[in-house]
Amino acid sequence: MSNKTSGEGLDYIAPLQDMAFLLNEVFPLSSSDSLTEKSEESLKEEREQELFVLKQAARFAEQELAPINSECDRQGCQLNDGQVSLPPSMKTAFQKYAQAGWMGLCMPEQWGGQNQSSRLGSLVGELLTSANHAFSMTPALTMSACRALIAYGSDELKQTYLEKMISGQWTGTMCMTEAHCGSDLGLIRTSATVNDDGSYQLKGSKIFISAGSHDASDNIIHLVLARLKDSPISREGIKGLSLFLVPEKVLEKAPENSEEGGQWSKDNNVRCIGIEEKMGVHGNPTCSMSFESSQGFLIGEENKGINAMFAMMNEMRLGTSLQGIGLSERSFQQSLSYAKNRTQMRSLSGIKNPELEADPLIVHPDVRRMLLTQKVFAEGGRALAQFCSQLMDESSESINQERAQLLDMLTPIAKGFCTEVGLESASHAIQIHGGHGFIKETGVEQLYRDGRIATLYEGTSGIQALDLLGRKVLGTQGKSLMSFTKMMHVLGKDNSHLAEDSEIGKLLTTLKSYSKEWPEITMQIGAKAMKNPDEAGAASFDYMMYSGYVVLAYFWAKMAITARTLLDKPPFDSELSKELLENKIDNATFYFERILPRALSHKVAMLSGNQTLKVNF
């Protein structure tokens, strides 16, 4: 398969070969992956269908989204008389996307979706965010709102809203944050009172609502956390929160004796009272929203709204991890192009291009260090996201508790770690471009500005770290962690025949040492935290980063083993290029030798304890 769908000269080229490598070789479909038995022939057809869909998504990302990225950044969104307008090309792109049926790619068929797998959706999601971060947010939020509605909404709500949201005729948002509270949802003040007809009346305001108001869809469906005024536990932090569906427009009933149905045109007192002047993501409006006696409908049970909201939030956290991965990929592509074409100084080991007055940047070892760092974060993160998406596919059928805990543990790692290193990749892009990286002309400064938000929304990196260490690891008595270290052990055991391989053998030996060290470190921190809970808080960020480096090491070892197996299998009959497979092994070696050692510094830092965080100012 060609790695390019439309030739040279594009701002962004979808990494289709690497995606095919993951889908067909590293994480191939098998009959054991599904409760429904499938023949090898049907699995082959499914794989071919996935690659076909990816090609079409790549074409849309390359030709429709990437070319308008900088233009929409410059134009931004406009608020006039309470109405928010998207940049014209952004509005057009969204409507094309919706009309082509992409919104419902992974949604159930009964509401107009295509019922494709999460593993395919993950790769398509990365293509969108790589090409145009601002664009990707509206479809992602809408589909996450649909997930919450499918899981917790009444049949009436599903029948009323899902089909139009899945078609893209309507879009959705997640309304949690208020001006006086960021991630501390227990401080929410937006209130709800029950109406005579069983609906609710909401009053309050929310901030930082992505795509909270715009002109690309006919209606916007807000999922709003609020407190029931008459609830006996209404003041008990998050326990007193309920989740409501609040449309921007509600149904205007048709006159009596009219044969036509009502129109969704009645104003519901949902107002955009401001859009944020942001550091980046200018093509997507971040709104302050006011609900002024707005009609809402309960999703799930009263006072249990946080459960339904987290169904949406966890999906968004995995979606945000794709933003980090896409940021690394886009940063790498733009850096590589520049490094090949920009000439600066001569190579330390001798002139490489005598016909030029200087050698290309790529001949310099430090530039290659940064390029490879971007590359291993993009491809390693992509493998992690693909594994998480397969766990999501299993959960849609019948996931066992061990696999569920594994997905829960990997979610904050994927979100927190991949966005942090994605931002590092964007910083490297600026560095490789030198002074040109600091100006708008090259576009890499926009990558950094847009990507900075990914470490913040859906929970900051610090919150992901606390969630990982506190809830997902210590909270399960280490069971989730042991599930992953078991995978590390099995990978080495199943490939012991490669122990003598000079490259693969070294990877497996190193990975084995981390599979033992990781639980040991966790027990040390857990013991400290039992005496002083602040010990967990003091260690959490370094613990998350340590975990991220080790998790990616596992996936890089797995990819290298897969590549070696394909190269050594006579005759070589893979559709993938030998160059890609050989590069996988070389890049895995780079990751283990140059990147994985960072975990050691995080180990030292997390074990230093809370006493090193004294405040003397």
Verbal overview:
This protein is α+β, with helices and mostly antiparallel strands. Among the domains are: 16-77 and 85-147, Butyryl-Coa Dehydrogenase, subunit A, domain 1, CATH 1.10.540.10; 153-303, Butyryl-CoA Dehydrogenase, subunit A, domain 2; 477-617. Helix content is 54%, strand content 12%. The chain has 17 helices and eleven strands. It has helices at 16-26, 40-65, 69-75, 88-99, 118-131, 133-152, 155-167, 305-341, 365-395, 401-433, 444-451, 461-473, 479-494, 504-531, 534-568, 578-595, 598-607; strands spanning 78-80, 83-85, 170-175, 191-194, 200-210, 219-228, 241-247, 249-252, 263-267, 270-275, 286-299. The strands form three sheets. A five-stranded mixed barrel has the order 4-5-11-7-6. Strand 1 (78-80) and strand 2 form a beta hairpin. The longest helix has 37 residues, at 305-341. It is globular and about 85 Å long. It starts with 15 loop residues before the first helix and ends in a 10-residue tail after the last helix. Mean pLDDT is 92; it is low at 1-9.
Overall morphology: globular
Q: Please tell me the overall pLDDT.
A: 92
H/E element order: HHHEEHHHHEEEEEEEEEHHHHHHHHHH
Radius of gyration, whole Å: 25 Å
The CATH C-level name of the domain at 153-303 is: Mainly Beta
Q: Per CATH, what is the topology of the domain at 153-303?
A: Butyryl-CoA Dehydrogenase, subunit A, domain 2
Number of beta-strand segments: 11
Can you name the CATH architecture of the domain at 153-303?
Beta Barrel
The total count of helices amounts to 17
Biggest sheet overview: 5 strands, mixed, barrel
Give the DSSP E fraction (strand runs of 2 or more residues).
5-15%
Can you tell me the residue ranges where pLDDT is under 50 for at least 5 consecutive residues? Answer: 1-9
Secondary-structure class: alpha+beta
Distance between the amino and carboxyl termini: 59 Å
